[in-house]
Design brief:
Layout lengths: L2 H4 L11 H63 L1 E5 L13 E6 L25 E6 L2 E12 L4 E5 L2 E4 L2 E2 L30 H4 L15 E5 L4 E5 L9 H4 L2 E2 L3 E11 L9 H4 L8 E2 L2
Antiparallel strand pairs: 1-2, 2-11, 3-4, 3-11, 4-9, 5-6, 5-8, 6-7, 9-10, 11-12
Length: 288
């Protein structure tokens, strides 16, 4: 046997067909396109997130820039134009109720510019019958609301609960009496003696022990000094007013309430009376 015939020939390399090469190239191209698309998508997402972040931060910085100006404007408007006021007591009952929230016109009598002693010109002077807001002369940190009944130079008195102005009885339809059966006296009335008119009218004021003995329903006549006003609550039997602590200087006048913008009935038994006990009919009511 020929030895050469028993030697097996070496294996020939396996060839790759043209169709297989095309398929491999297409797959590679597809993978590259997918990778490229994913990269573009991620880049677009990052860009969108950056834009959103810039928008949010831009809004925040813009708000921070405007905020101080808005606060300053609010304070100026509050100090000069309109201020909110809440009724805490029943001294004006009949006209104003506990739980009423008022908007006070501060321009009417001339508002004071904040941080200065400069007072703006008044739209008009206070008038008899005005409902007024003022700083309490005893403690100017507190604001009171009452009805102005007498101007500088007026002579004012009360007999049996009826107000007399310059000797004439006043028809006060807004007045209510919640405790008409009593007429208490108090040491608080002693200040009136310095302003008492020394006439026969003064002698008619009840004085069981002689001399001037003013009481809640019987006092005067008193003369209102220059640049001062005399104020009373519409609830004449439950009001801490000029009868007790004296006249109001015109420098303490702050304005006149215009409208009730919100009102609710306080109730200690309710957990949220400002929501459940709203006086809907009083909202927007003008104050007279």
């Amino acid at each position: 046997m020929d030895p050469s015939s028993s030697v097996r020939p070496e294996s020939e390399p396996v060839g790759v067909s043209s169709s297989d090469t095309s398929a491999l190239g297409a797959a590679t191209d597809t993978a590259e396109r997918l990778a490229s698309d994913e990269m573009l998508r991620l880049a677009a997402l990052r860009a969108a997130n950056k834009r959103t972040s810039r928008i949010r931060l831009g809004w925040f910085f813009e708000w921070m820039r405007v905020f101080p100006a808005a606060v300053a404007l609010f304070l100026v408007l509050r100090a000069v134009l309109v201020e909110a006021y809440k009724i805490p007591s029943g001294s004006m009952e009949g006209t104003l109720l506990v739980g009423d929230f008022l908007l006070v016109n501060k321009l009417l009598y001339g508002a004071t510019i904040p941080l200065t002693n400069v007072k703006l010109p008044a739209v008009r002077e206070p008038r008899r019958g005005d409902v007024v807001v003022f700083e309490w002369p005893v403690d100017p940190s507190k604001n009171f609301v009452k009805r102005l009944v007498a101007l500088p130079g007026d002579t004012v008195s009360m007999q049996q609960g009826v107000l007399l102005l310059n000797g004439l009885e006043q028809d006060e339809r807004y007045v209510v009496h919640t405790d008409p059966g009593v007429d208490p006296t108090a040491e608080d009335f002693r200040w009136q003696r310095s302003y008492l008119v020394r006439t026969a009218t003064a002698a008619q004021v009840p004085a069981p022990r002689g001399g001037y003995r003013p009481s809640r329903n019987n006092w005067g006549p008193l003369v209102v000094p220059q640049d001062h006003f005399f104020v009373l609550g519409d609830n004449r039997d439950n009001s801490l007013d000029s009868r007790y602590w004296g006249f109001v200087p015109d420098s303490l006048m702050r304005g006149s309430p215009m409208v009730v913008y919100y009102s609710y009935s306080p109730d200690s038994m309710s957990t949220a009376p400002w929501i459940t006990n709203i006086r809907w009919r009083r909202l927007g009511e003008r104050i007279r």
